[in-house]
TrEMBL record, chain A:
GO MF entries: transmembrane transporter activity
Subcellular location: Cell membrane
Keyword Acyltransferase: no
One of the protein's GO biological processes: amino acid transport
Keyword set, alphabetical order: Amino-acid transport, Cell membrane, Membrane, Transmembrane, Transmembrane helix, Transport
Membrane topology per record: Multi-pass membrane protein
Cellular component, GO annotation: ATP-binding cassette (ABC) transporter complex
Superkingdom of origin organism: Bacteria
Transmembrane segments: 25-43, 63-90, 102-122
Database matches in Pfam families: BPD_transp_1
Domain ABC transmembrane type-1 stretches: 66-272
Protein name listed in UniProt: ABC transporter permease
Family stated for the protein in its record: Belongs to the binding-protein-dependent transport system permease family.
Automatic annotation (TrEMBL), chain B:
Listed name of the protein: Ectoine/hydroxyectoine ABC transporter ATP-binding protein EhuA
InterPro entries documented for this protein: AAA+_ATPase, ABC_ATPase_HisP-typ, ABC_transporter-like_ATP-bd, ABC_transporter-like_CS, MetN_ABC_transporter-like, P-loop_NTPase
Top-level taxon in the UniProt lineage: Bacteria
Keywords, comma-separated and alphabetical: ATP-binding, Cell membrane, Membrane, Nucleotide-binding, Transport
UniProt source species: Amnibacterium flavum
Amino acid sequence: MSTPTHETAPEVVTHFVSLKHPWRIAGIVLVLILALLLVITVATNERFQWDVVVGYLFNPRILAGLGMTIFLTFIAMVIGLALGVVIAVMRTSASRTLRWSSSFYVWFFRGTPVLVQLVFWYNLGYLFPELTFGIPFLEPFVTVDTNSVITPLLAAILGLGLNEGAYLAEIIRAGILSVSTGQREAATSIGMTRYQAFRRIILPQAMRVIIPPTGNETIGMLKSTSLVSVIALSDLMYSAQSIYSRTFEVIPLLLTASIWYLVLTSLLSIGQAQIETHFGRGALAEAGVSGRGMSHLLRRGGKAATR
Amino acid sequence: MIEATSQSVDVSDVHKRYHHNEVLKGVSFHVPANTVTSVLGPSGSGKSTLLRSINRLIPIDSGLIRVGDNIIGYEERGGKYYELSDRDLCRQRQRIGMVFQNFNLFPHKTVLANLVEGPQVVLGRPKRETEEEARELLASVGLAAKADEYPGQLSGGQQQRVAIARALAMKPELILFDEPTSALDPELVGEVLDVMRRLAEDSSTTMIVVTHEIAFARDVSDQVVFMADGVVEASGPAREVLDPERSPRIKSFLMRSTR
């Protein structure tokens, strides 16, 4: 240093001695030992019957069950989203009647187990033996036997969809509330109708808040569909059960089902990350990432970046 | 800058209360077409509420607001005033632009998309034409190069200039400015005021500006409305209203602002 106030040149430090983390090392060793034990057990315990697991992976009944699981997840989420938007908008309404009735819906469907709801819909015939369609107090147009209408499939769709609607309503409401009132004012000031403002300005911005928990809900729903096996609907879980009840290969078939569930949840996670990047537009710009850098960042890990 | 017809604004005896707090206690003034009016006054005097009621972002309790021949928010039939539907109200708002203190640009859309949103979605005008106009407008506020960026990438002053361009893209007959420079860093205030000054000189649009910029009010406006405590304390040409001798309130306001 050339400044005269320093009498001696500062000492050049060449090496630091890092702090030792003995507990961390102990932890690593423990985890490695446990992992090794797990691998050895899985590989040597013949009762896993990996050949049977693999053999059933593409079994027609398993694949049919897989198809039903995917279908149920999809339809329940679609119904849940549609209901969720309506209930969320009702909950932010100026009308007290609409607010309270939607709150009641959420309270009821979130407050009872989905398993109970499924069994309830399945047994609706006990409550209403006949379903009638027509104008109240007049001769009905159509009367049908409830048990012929409420098939296991319909009971499953109703049970899962109505339940999901309650959860998604809360998620969507949080999303709508996360958009500043200034955005609605700005949309209104350029002459947009309420619907246009909601559809083009509010909802796309709310999506950033809505997508991550909705992704989790979809993954949760995929697994919840396994509950429909109690109302004898042949989803993935029910198919596995019906095979092992004959062959007694319980563990291998549960593993087969688990592998498929893992495959599906992994695919959903990837899809979720991509949708998140799509709706993260503009938010990244605000974080100070510009132009080219942004698209690069988007491709690498939108999930982390959008939060 | 733009070619559009302009409208006069007539505010008469407007009242507005929030619960027990009466914010507007009978406000009246007239803004001739093709003029600039600055609304000044201490904070809490009801300026922003008044401005927001002119395009009915806030519904008023009583009184009438006329923009041109239209009564804002109502339709008169046989001596009765019927509240307008959302759709009809939107038709009135299409012709009234607004610029906000916090810009309120749409953060998920590019600058260009912010400008064409209104003309395309609300007015249903073609893409090519509206984009051309939008680029011209951006050039006129000195931001031609920023068309494809997102609002979050711009400085506050740039965002507010985009917001002004977004309002102009609808070819409004009246533009409302709600403290357009209050959220800006001091060094960015000038660029926004410049754009507004040019707008006042070059275009025929009627402007109502709620502001704390006394110099701007003095230099640019045809009329100054001084509000205090929910009423118009004084209105008229700037040099008459912004005279410390006129009232003690105006005097203390001027003293606080120049410090």
